[in-house]
Amino acid sequence: MARIIVDVMPKPEILDPQGKAVHGALPRLGFDGVTDVRQGKRFELQVEDADDHTLAEVERIAGTLLSNPVIEDFTVRVEDAS
Amino acid sequence: MARIIVDVMPKPEILDPQGKAVHGALPRLGFDGVTDVRQGKRFELQVEDADDHTLAEVERIAGTLLSNPVIEDFTVRVEDAS
């Protein structure tokens, strides 16, 4: 068994209202020192074996089902066995 | 400038309807080989300097504003400069 992580984040040029809302709330809650916040999604996919075939399949899943490639970027990586 | 990543995932004992929905959709779309999916959130916080004070502050932000500690776990890490 292996775990593959897919991170999906809004593209840098895309407005991110969720991140902006978090960023705007921080000073009101007494936190300063954070200059920007972006919010995205994280998926953990459990697979039998993280071989090349499975990774290629997960890349296709990430680009079609897990992200909207018009407004989001994604990264796929195998989690370190730790 | 440094970037701190906060990953927020549903606790293992908590049902994850979003992850289950993704998992259920995979076979219909022709993907097999994925045995489980969990969906969570990923936050990227831009800070001036990732020193101990800032990291402690981000830990407090993560535990109060970014996650619901009743149903979610979070991890905080400084992103590798790459």
From TrEMBL, chains A, B:
InterPro entries: PurS (IPR003850), PurS-like_sf (IPR036604)
Major subcellular site: cytoplasm
EC number: 6.3.5.3
Presence of keyword Lyase: no
Enzyme class of the recorded protein, top EC level: ligase
Organism domain of life: Bacteria
Catalyzed chemical reaction(s): N(2)-formyl-N(1)-(5-phospho-beta-D-ribosyl)glycinamide + L-glutamine + ATP + H2O = 2-formamido-N(1)-(5-O-phospho-beta-D-ribosyl)acetamidine + L-glutamate + ADP + phosphate + H(+)
Subcellular location: Cytoplasm
Pathway annotation from the record: Purine metabolism; IMP biosynthesis via de novo pathway; 5-amino-1-(5-phospho-D-ribosyl)imidazole from N(2)-formyl-N(1)-(5-phospho-D-ribosyl)glycinamide: step 1/2
Assigned keywords, A-Z: ATP-binding, Cytoplasm, Ligase, Nucleotide-binding, Purine biosynthesis
Family, per entry: Belongs to the PurS family.
Cross-referenced PANTHER family: PHOSPHORIBOSYLFORMYLGLYCINAMIDINE SYNTHASE SUBUNIT PURS
Assembly mode: Part of the FGAM synthase complex composed of 1 PurL, 1 PurQ and 2 PurS subunits.
Protein name (database record): Phosphoribosylformylglycinamidine synthase subunit PurS
Lineage per the UniProt record: Bacteria, Bacillati, Actinomycetota, Actinomycetes, Propionibacteriales
Recorded name of the encoding gene: purS
